[in-house]
Amino acid sequence: MKEEKQKRIIDYLNDFLDWLDVEKGLSSKTQENYARFLKKFFEWLKINNLESLKPYQLSPDHIYQYKTFLSRKLKKPLKQSTQSYYLIALRQFLNFFAEKDIKSLPPEKVKLPKKKTEKVIHFLTLEQIEKLLESPDTSNEIGLRDRAILETFFSTGMRAGELINLNKEQIKIKPETKDLEITIIGKGQRPRTVYLSERAVFWLRKYLETRKDREKALFINYRGKKPGTRLTIRSLERIVKKYAILAGLPLATVCHTLRHSFATDLLRKGVDLRIVQEFLGHKNISTTQIYTHVTRPQLREIHKKYHGIK
Fold first, then answer.
1. Dihedral sign (CA 74, 80, 86, 92)
2. What are the residue ranges spanned by the domains of the chain?
3. What is the radius of gyration, based on Cα positions, of the chain?
4. Residues contacting 279, CB < 8 A, separation 6+
5. pLDDT reported for residue 116
6. Catalytic residues
7. pLDDT at 234
8. Residue 208 class from Cβ within 10 Å (0-12 exposed, 13-18 middle, 19+ buried)?
9. Phi and psi for 249 in degrees, rounded to 5?
10. CB-based contacts of 73, cutoff 8 Å, min separation 6
11. Cβ contact 30:62 at 8 Å
12. What is the pLDDT of residue 2?
């Protein structure tokens, strides 16, 4: 593309979002997030009278100034991790230019802030998990639903959004069914198989026996303004928090804690990291590597026990 025929940077937003949808297959929510993060960059261009800037005119100095803006010049400074989200969106924008042969700054010129500390992973021990799973009162339909939710979480390691999107038709439990495997659509619209243990199937069966409605959602509301409708992520978080408190577990316990606990349990039992990556539906192994520090205390004992001349 000739430089003089390029549109302004800010005029490429819709083309970029179409690219994320069609070429990258990203969800509408992810597209919304990218649009929101990029609008901060467009806001910075406007503040600095750079609205007419074209892709080929973007320089490393512009990137440096924008990073300074995110770090120091906002009314409320952004956390380093949040700054990274804005810069990742900008880098993806430059990836779009590169793929479309639109002359611009190379994506690798957008450097992310170096992480100061290792991400802390909150997980539960198997004893704590047992306390959590046994907390619901299963003498009523709400308690049965909640027990089925908790058991499904820990059995599959699903994300909260994946769990609430489950439908009844996916859970085909016959009288002879013990364990079960189902296909779900995960992050980035990527399908993957998850596995329901015999214990999870037991509680799902008991819960489904109480369902006489025609709602297709697997997990539904029984109270609130819209009883009978699909649970929301917020409702799911409240459910997990409620039973974490009842079980006397750390206040930091949330839905994702069960996913962390699922991954940690597998790693501690010697499951290969790449297998755990498949279970979790991570696109990149680097994402799964956040869990490896959890198993480090065991490495010394394993080395002492198995390595060397006896």
1. positive
2. 3-109, 126-302
3. 24
4. 157, 194, 262, 263, 266
5. 56
6. 159, 187, 256, 259, 282, 291
7. 93
8. middle
9. -90, 165
10. none
11. no
12. 44
DSSP 53-113: --GGG--HHHHHHHHHIIIIISSSPPPHHHHHHHHHHHHHHHHHHHHTT-----GGGSPPP
Tokens of 298: 């065991």
Per-residue pLDDT of the chain (310 residues; tens, 9 = 90+): 444 467 999 999 999 999 999 988 888 889 999 999 999 999 999 999 999 999 999 999 999 999 988 887 676 767 777 888 999 999 999 999 999 999 999 999 998 877 655 567 889 999 999 999 999 999 999 999 999 999 999 999 999 999 999 999 999 999 899 999 999 999 888 999 999 999 999 999 999 999 999 999 999 999 877 788 999 999 999 999 999 999 999 989 999 999 999 999 998 888 888 999 999 999 888 888 888 766 655 556 655 666 555 5
**Coil vs helix vs strand at 195:** strand
DSSP bridge pairs for 185: 191
Q: Which residue's structure tokens are 């995960």?
A: 186
What lies within 8 Å, CB to CB, of 192 at 6+ separation is 183, 184, 186, 278, 281
Tokens 């990556």 found at? 277
**Which CATH code for domain 3-109?**
1.10.150.130
Residue 279: its pLDDT value, please?
A: 94
Q: Among 3.20.190.10, 1.10.4030.10, 1.10.10.10, 1.10.443.10, what is the CATH number of 126-302? A: 1.10.443.10
Q: What is the DSSP string of 231-268?
A: PPHHHHHHHHHHHHHHTT--TT--HHHHHHHHHHHHHH
3-state secondary structure of 37: helix
Round to whole Å and give the CA distance between 33 and 44.
17
